[in-house]
Amino acid sequence: MGYIRGIMWNKLPTWQVFLWWHHFFLLWSTIDGQTRYSIPEELKQGSVVGNLAKDLGLVVSELYRRKLRITSDAGKQYFSVDLGKGELVVKDRIDREELCAQRPSCLLPLELVIDNPLQLHRVEIEILDTNDNSPSFLNKEKVVKIAELVNPGARFPLESAQDPDVGINSIRSYLISKNDHFKLTVKSHKDGRKIPELVLEKPLDREKLPVHNLILTAVDGGDPVRSGTSEITVVVLDINDNAPQFERQVYEANVSEKATPGTEVLHVKATDADEGLNGEIEYFFAEQTTDLILSLFDIEPSTGSVVVKGMLDHETNTLLRFDITAKDKGNPEMDGHCGVEIKIVDINDNTPEIIVTSLTTPVPEDSAIGTVIALISAKDPDSGDNGKVTLSVSPKSPFKLNPSVSNHYSLVTNGPLDREKNDRYSVKISATDSGKPPLTSEKIILVELLDVNDNPPVFSQPSYVVYVKENHAPGNILCSVSAIDPDAGDNAKISYSILDSKVQDVSVSSYVYINSDNGSIYSMHSFDYEKLKVFQIQVQAKDQGSPSLSSNATVHVFILDQNDNAPAVIYPSSAALGSLSHQRMPRSAKAGHLVTKVTAVDADSGHNAWISYKVSEATDASLFTVNLYTGEVRTKRAVSEQDDSSQRLLIEIKDDGEPVQSATVTVSILLEDGLHEPILDLRHKSMVEPSKKTGRITLYLILSLASVSLLSLVTFVILAVKCMRSSRSSGSCCMRRSDCDDYKNPNRNLQIQLNTDGPIKYVEVLGGDMLSQSQSFRSCMSPMSEYSDFTLIKPSSTTDFKEVISVLDASLPDSTWTFESQQVSTK
Ligand SMILES: *[C@@H]1O[C@H](CO)[C@@H](O)[C@H](O)[C@H]1NC(C)=O
Ligand SMILES: *[C@@H]1O[C@H](CO)[C@@H](O)[C@H](O)[C@H]1NC(C)=O
Ligand SMILES: *[C@@H]1O[C@H](CO)[C@@H](O)[C@H](O)[C@H]1NC(C)=O
């Protein structure tokens, strides 16, 4: 039929084609000798199957009368007879598949009956197949599951399509839509069924394409060709063929060392191209991870979050490296790895540490500035600024820090040291780092100073004054001197000694000795004021340092007068006359007649030498009296005739000391008639006496006489003149004009004046015991003065003038003396 189609298909209308078919088969049936018609199925209603009248030999005009009719049921249904033309026409639609199913030939028998005469005719109608059915699949969609690892060549049977048409109109082939992985083969069964099969040509990768959508087409052989399709969905089943992949090879994070447990440090993430369990990832620390890491960090298996677990410390671990493994849950599982670097960020959590590497103590106090005391270093385990340490020392201390190599310092002296002011220093060293906020620590270095003998002993007083009574028992403590030395140890151990000097040509060490340990000074024998009134001791205090230092002090020893001398009668001389002296006086003497003058001296001084005279016994107590102070014996009344010519007076001479010392002298007086005044005699005697006696007696006489009243002054002047004369000739007197001129030197002269309150004038001359003292004294009488006596002292020794002043001042604490230093004019 293909050639017909090729020629006619497009040029002839459909009904003409059918007509042509009708004639062809009709012709063929007739020839066959049977009344048989072949018609294609699905003819239109009214289509003529065949001319019954002609084929059955009937007359058309008779057909009405003979009532030609179809009697078989199937015939009645599909066909009818056109009685006017004698033709068999299609009455209803004829579907061959309905009538004959898949039988290769489909014959529909017809029975025709005609009356007059009744005849039965059998007609066979063959229904010819036309391609009126498309191939179809039972399931329009089909899912094929293929594991992705299946090797190429594997076959997967598909569903065959159905086509009710037969023969050539039934299914001829299958086609598959274009794809990269599959081809189609058709497998023919023995029963003629054709079964399509998918054949894998290239390996599948679910990760690339998990689902392949194919269309299977079945084609029949009819004309026109008919086809049917089915959707084939190839689902690639996952195989765990992908390892988890981390997003990064190495993860980096910074975490503060202060981070508390639970703080998330970082988050790792891996992906797995597989699906399901094969793609479900869990994170773990890699197998070789150290215990340290395990103690410090934790990883959340499901999320990959790394959190702090332990206490981090930048100082022990600055950078931590470890690996993380990601595992899927496939079987077998696959894993992936990544590295992690966690930098632990320093926090200023370490206070600087001060380390004293070496310390020299004690330090001599005379150490030069710059002497190294200690080597100090600072340490701070923090890094960067947090570990940058600066050291400082309290600015008030005499020390400073000299930086040397990194973080090392030397502590050196920065000023003079004085152990006596400060025997130890607590040097406060502070270390501060540069962190924010900075941390500080302190250390106190105790520097002790070593004593150097730089202080001499110092006496408690520059000079000492001691008063000691004469005649005291030897061996007593005179005084104690003491000195202190601010140094320490042997440098402060003081020993006392007495420096050798001479006192009255004798070494002072024979007078006193000193306890070298405590400075107590002892006398070695008693002193006699009359011989020695004052002396100095040079005391030295010496420490035991090396070299030792010493200092001196002066001890002034004043011997205090004791009343140990009784008054000595000078006149009337008892020695010559055996305590008896005869005085003559005229009987004509009136009251107040000076009979004689008793003169006594006392070797003591002061009150102990303050002599008073008293009549102790008298022949006639009413006749004579003795002046208490001057010793002048005078008549109380005029001598009468009745008075005994020989009178006797016992005069007691007392000093004012305590206890009182006394002496007596007996004066015998002869009353004579016609005698002259005995003054000249007295004067004569008095004038004679001094020239004979020693200078000492002369002086005493002068002094005694100078203390007499106005009357005596006349005598004194005469005596003075006499003395001046005699001294020129003999040189034994103290008065010399040139000597007086010497005293013009203002600084070397001392004038001592006695207040003239009382009737007695008494001059005390320091060191006046000219026998025992090496000093010499000279006196000059001022002619201008009647009532005052001057004694000029010129110390012959080299004793300092000021010292003498102070000595005098100190030695006469209660005196009524006034001291005047003046330039004496004796012209
Ligand atoms: C860590 O800190 C350093 C400097 O302190 C910086 O250069 C680096 O980028 C930081 N890293 C991270 C992961 O933040
Ligand atoms: C010094 O030592 C002596 C003897 O031990 C003692 O008698 C004296 O009192 C001491 N002097 C002082 C001032 O302690
Ligand atoms: C103490 O006196 C001695 C003897 O006179 C003398 O050598 C010494 O220098 C004096 N010492 C002081 C500190 O004055």
Structure description:
By secondary structure, the protein is mainly beta. It has six domains: 115 residues, Cadherins (Immunoglobulin-like); 106 residues, Cadherins (Immunoglobulin-like, Sandwich); 107 residues, Cadherins (Immunoglobulin-like); 98 residues, Cadherins (Immunoglobulin-like, Sandwich), CATH 2.60.40.60; 103 residues, Sandwich (Immunoglobulin-like); 254 residues, Cadherins (Immunoglobulin-like), CATH 2.60.40. The chain is built from 13 helices and 54 strands. The chain has a four-stranded mixed sheet with strand order 1-7-6-3. The protein starts with a helix and ends in a 7-residue tail after the last strand. The relative contact order is 0.04. The structure holds 2-acetamido-2-deoxy-beta-D-glucopyranose (3 copies). The site of one 2-acetamido-2-deoxy-beta-D-glucopyranose (NAG) has 4 residues, from strand 16.
Give the topology.
Layout: H1 2-8, H2 14-32, E1 36-40, E2 48-51, H3 52-56, H4 63-66, E3 69-70, H5 73-78, E4 79-82, E5 87-90, H6 96-100, E6 107-114, E7 119-128, E8 141-147, E9 155-157, E10 171-176, E11 182-188, E12 194-200, E13 211-220, E14 227-237, E15 245-246, E16 250-256, E17 264-267, E18 270-271, E19 281-285, H7 291-296, E20 297-299, E21 305-308, E22 319-328, E23 335-345, E24 353-359, E25 363-364, E26 372-379, E27 389-393, E28 399-403, E29 408-413, E30 424-433, E31 440-450, E32 458-459, E33 463-469, E34 477-480, E35 483-484, E36 494-499, E37 502-503, E38 506-507, E39 512-514, E40 520-523, E41 534-543, E42 550-560, E43 568-571, H8 574-577, E44 580-586, E45 594-597, E46 599-601, E47 612-618, E48 624-626, E49 632-635, E50 646-654, E51 662-672, H9 679-692, H10 695-706, H11 710-730, H12 737-742, E52 750-753, E53 791-793, H13 801-811, E54 818-820
Parallel strand pairs: 1-7, 8-14, 16-23, 25-31, 33-42, 44-51
Antiparallel strand pairs: 2-5, 3-6, 4-5, 6-7, 9-12, 10-13, 11-12, 13-14, 15-18, 17-21, 19-22, 20-21, 22-23, 24-26, 26-29, 27-30, 28-29, 30-31, 32-35, 34-40, 36-41, 37-38, 39-40, 41-42, 43-46, 45-49, 47-50, 48-49, 50-51, 52-53, 52-54
Helix pairs in contact: 9-11
The structure holds 2-acetamido-2-deoxy-beta-D-glucopyranose (3 copies).
Residues 252-254, 343 line the site of one 2-acetamido-2-deoxy-beta-D-glucopyranose (NAG).
